[in-house]
Every structure is written in structure tokens, then in C-alpha cells.
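Quick entry between incubations.
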Amino acid sequence: MEIYLPIAEMSVHWLVILGMGFGVGFLSGMFGIGGGFLLTPLLIFYGIPPGVAVATTASQVSAVTFSGVVTHWRRRTLDLKMGAVMLSGGLTGTALGVYLFSVLRRMGQSEFSVSASYVILLGIVGGLMLNESLRTLRAMRTGQPAFGRKPGQHNWIHGLPFKMRFRESRLYISAIPPVVLGFVVGILSAIMGVGGAFMMVPVMIYVLRMPTNVVVGTSLFQVLFVTATATILHAVDNYTVDIVMAMFLILGGVAGVQYGVRVGTKLRGEQLRLLLALLVLAVAARLFVEMVATPADLYTVAVGTP
Amino acid sequence: MKRRLLLAAAAALLATLPAAADEDLVSGVSQDVVEITSNYTGTDLTVFGDVEQPEDAAGRDIVVVVRGPDARITVRRKDRFAGIWINNARAQLIGMPSYYFLASTRPLEDIAAPDTLRRYDLGLDNLRPERALSDGSIDPYVRAMVRALGKRGLYVQSGTAVEMLSATLFRVRVPVPATVPRGSYNVQVYLFRDGNVVSAQSTPLFVDQTGFDRRLYTFAHRWPFSYGVSTVLMALLFGWASSFLFRRKA
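Done. Structure below.
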């Protein structure tokens, strides 16, 4: 059955939207990512106007992450204090990012800057994760001590002031790195139209050295607030949030995330990271090919937008 | 006496002859409002009409045009820099129709001279914006736009779609896809005789959302903040409900 979307002003098949929500929700439950970087391109590919796709994805991501946050809260795999510290930087960064994005859009370069930031960031993040998880898996197979968290190890982060104790993460570190991380991810997520968990998770693991089990819940917590803010900003500034499409995406998404979380807890951290790395690299490669390949039509046409 | 009578008869004949010879047109549309509801997937309209005081059918042609509300359209051209395709130039076309359907009894170029077609904005090749902002010729941009909207089913031209039911009675099926913009449309029917427009008729048509969709659209545009907050609340409610439901099941 086809349904008409009042904001996108087109009709779609509800099962397709529901299915996309479910699939992306499953992956986000499994990896602890919001899934925006997968859902937005999928919706655009299906024919949804890019503005509506970005804005409505934000609302789906906030539903999926809320569901995940509740689950992690119950399992006590969420560092609320760390999440709040990161969020203080994250919301400031989002506001700045929304401004930057409007400047880029006026220059007609929003499309290119979105694709380019996707390719660069997904490429770096995916490459690092792939390298690390493969090394860990190989080390485990040969019986060598696994590369990973070394509790006694100190790095440059421990020299910074404003130290705070994060009990759930078993860390005593400066508040500056989490705030800066939240800020940077906030800017990037506003420009790229995603929550940004896929960028935060590796930094939290490798730089902050948080235990993997609390990383997922904590990043979801930050993404929840960033995407909820983004949804409201998009609704107010651009009128591009389609609540009917959001409903179907959310229904599929919240069901998917529950199965994803269950599968995720059964897999080992290294395996999860290997899979996520491959997924991230695949998206980056696809976008890169799109930027380099000669387009079928050199002209793009936008109706009714400045 | 006889001569005067003849003159009078001739005068009367001259007075009535042109009137009697003038072909005229009556036409109508099956609907004057297209209502977009939550299960709207596109529809078909029928434009129909009849030729009055018909003359010889040989030199007669009928052209039906449905034109949607004007839109501001931005067309961007990509160029290659260091192997990467980047939007480099753009044109803004103002006053192009957001929907354009044309049907005729024969291909347009057989019906009238290019000048005539251009004067009446007939045919996809003759659509020109009222105003355009561009750093060069707008022609490639306009062509790109006609191509893109044609692919979306919003620009249609057919040289055979006018169906003659009898010598004078005609009918045209107009496909209205699900992506049509809302607004006021205009249905124009032209009667051509030997390459000239001898009669034209215009009927307004409205496309609008109704019911639940209309209310949502109004809500989103009039109270955007509350609309955004409602969407987020709905998202949180579903998220919370699902984690609750699935915990019970597990």
C-alpha cells in the first residue's frame, strides 16, 4: 500500500520505509551507532528529497538511540557523567555546524562538502578500525597477548588539568578531551546530517581508552540529544521533517535495534569492530566512486530551493 | 426592385457568413480540484471538448496544455577538478512551470510555425523562464531542467494524445503523478485552423492536500517548533515503548 508523505509531497511504499528503518536500526543496535550515515543515503537513493531525508533521519535516529539508551541504562553499560560532559561540547558544536552548513549551502557547495567529509572521515575511521581489529584478531590466533586496554598505561591525556572521575568507565582523566571530542563531532554531525557516533566510538576506545562495553551506551546517549536538537532545528528552519515518514522509519527502527543489541552482545568486541570497519569503508568507497565517476547527467535540478 | 433584394440578400449573407464559418470550442475538465489524501498515488484527469460550427476537418488541430504553478528552479552544472566532479556553475530559472503537460492531435511542428508555437508557449522546446540568473547562456540549463522534470513525469509532451471520439468530439487523458506540486493549475485548449489559433479556452484547476495531510502540513508550517518537539516526543515514546515491550518478551 502506498502512503502519501505530506511534507516530502510524494507517495512511497510503507513497507520499503519500514524495512529501511528496521535494517538500519538493527545495525545501530549491534554497533552502537546512530545509523544516520547509512539511512540518509538510502532514503535519497529511494527518491526522497535530500533535505527531507536528512531532517527525518535525525528523528529516526533519536528514537532508535533512545531505545538503545534505555536498554544500556538497564544493563548499566552507560556512563552518564561522561555522556553529559561530552554533550556540553556537542550542543555548542552542533549550533556552530548548522551555521557553517548554511554558509556552504549558499555557496552551492553543500553537496560536495558533505560527500567529501563523508569520504575522508569514514575512510580514516574505517581504516583505523580495520587495522586495529585485524591486528587484535591475528594476535589472539597466534596466542600473543591481545592489543587493547592497558590499565596502568599513561598517555598525553593524563597531563591535562580539570581531572574528573568517571566511575562507570573506570577512568580518572581531564574533562577537556571529552568536551573537545563532543564539540568536533557536533560540528561534523551538523554538516553531515548524522549523529556522529561512528566517529566518536573509535576516539572513545583508542584515545580516551574507555572500556568497549560502556562506549556504546555512552555514545548513544550523546547522539540522542544531538539528533533530537537537530530534528527541532530542521523543523523550525527548513520545514523538512516529515512526521509520517518518521513514524514508519521509527517503527521499523526501534524493532530492529532490539534485535541488533541482542546479536551485538553475543559477538566479541574485535569482531564487532571488524564488521563496523568494513561497513564504514564500504560506504566511503561508494561515495568516493560517486564523486569520481562521470555522472550520467552533469546537471542537477532542484525545484523550489534557493 | 429585384436588384435591391439581391443586394440585401448578399449583405445579409456577408454579415452572417463569417460568423457561421467561425469555428468555436467548448471544453471541460473531469475534476476542478485534485485532492491529495493520505493514500494518494497519482491520478488521471480527463479534458474533453467539442468543436462548434465545424469546418473541414483537414486543417483543424487541437492542442491541450495543463500548466502547473510557476516555480523557482536551481540548476547546477558539475565540472571536473583533479578527478572529482564538483558543482561549478549554476543558473536560477524563475517562472518555469512546475508541471507541464501538452497533448495535440499531430506533432506540434506539423500544426503551426515555430513563431506561433513560441508566442503561445507551446511545447517543451519553447518553455523559457521569465527571469534567469546565470553567468552565461541559460539554454543548456533549461534543457537540463526539461530533461530532469521529464524523467520525473512532470514535463510531458505527446503529439498523438488527443483522442478524437467523433469528427469534432475530443478527449485527452492527463496523468497527474504523485509528486505534483500543490497550487493552482491552468488547463488551456487551443483550436488551430491552418496553423493559426482561432479559439482558445482556459479552465482553472486546483491541486491541494485535504484532510489529515492538510492539517499536518499546516501544523508543520504554522507552528514549526511545536511540530519539531512533537516529532521528537513521538520518537522518544516509540523508543521507550519498544524497549519496554521487548524486555517483556525476552
